[in-house]
Amino acid sequence: MTPDSLDDLLDRSAPATRAIDDRALTAMIADARREVPRGRKRRGALLAGSLAIVMLGGAGLATADSDWLWGAGMDDPRRSVTYTSPTWGACELRLGELRAANPLAQAGIDRVVDAWFAETDIESEMAPLIGKYLAVLEDSQAGDPESLADPRRPDLNYWGAVDLSVAELLHDELTEHGYTGPGAGLASGASQVHCEGEQWR
């Protein structure tokens, strides 16, 4: 696709995002895993530094009732989950741009991801994980008065917790199918959210 002036305008008006340090994310995930036992036994740890980093740190934002569009690679509604945000109402989180570390494995990873979204009740599986990530996010902001004063904070934190929960579940699913370890899983990925009543300013 050739960028045009609308693309430039959307890029310039997108809210700023920030990346999470790999070590901080790994520590946050380890703390959360210790706090809440998993219902299902799964192998492996969350793929720190790739999918979750991109999902939380570089995620695009959009407004459901505005002129915002889904970003590049986010046009497939089959790769999405829904949730209810504390004040923003119904939300849809889409995953896209899932790139295999090994390009020869891309078709296989796409099959696993598509089957997982089609056959799994992801909303039910992520429900017990959201609380642990939400607690870790809130604890990390406890000493930041500016962050605590932001009226959007509960919705932003809930979005982050959903995002991380989906990333963990997807990582575990790929691991079960042998897509794990250096050069075998995902090299990158992204997510984007639309909510009915979201406020980004």
Strand order within the widest sheet?
1-4-3-2
Number of distinct helices: 7
Rounded radius of gyration (Å) = 17 Å
Structural class: alpha+beta
Shape: globular
Uncertain spans, ≥5 residues at pLDDT below 50?
A: 36-67
Strand tally is 4
Largest sheet: 4 strands, mixed
Q: What is the N-to-C order of secondary-structure elements (H for helix, E for strand)?
A: HHHEEEHHHHE
Termini, distance in Å? Answer: 30 Å
Topology:
Layout lengths: L4 H9 L8 H14 L15 H7 L2 E4 L16 E6 L3 E12 L5 H14 L2 H19 L4 H5 L3 H24 L9 E10 L6
Parallel strand pairs: 1-4
Antiparallel strand pairs: 2-3, 3-4
Helix pairs in contact: 2-5, 3-7, 5-7
Provide an overview of this structure.
Residues 182-201 are annotated as: Disordered. By secondary structure, the chain is of the alpha+beta class. The protein has one domain (5-195). The chain has helices spanning 5-13, 22-35, 51-57, 106-119, 122-140, 145-149, 153-176; strands at 60-63, 80-85, 89-100, 186-195. α2 (22-35) packs across α5 and α3 (51-57) packs antiparallel against α7 (153-176). The relative contact order is 0.22.
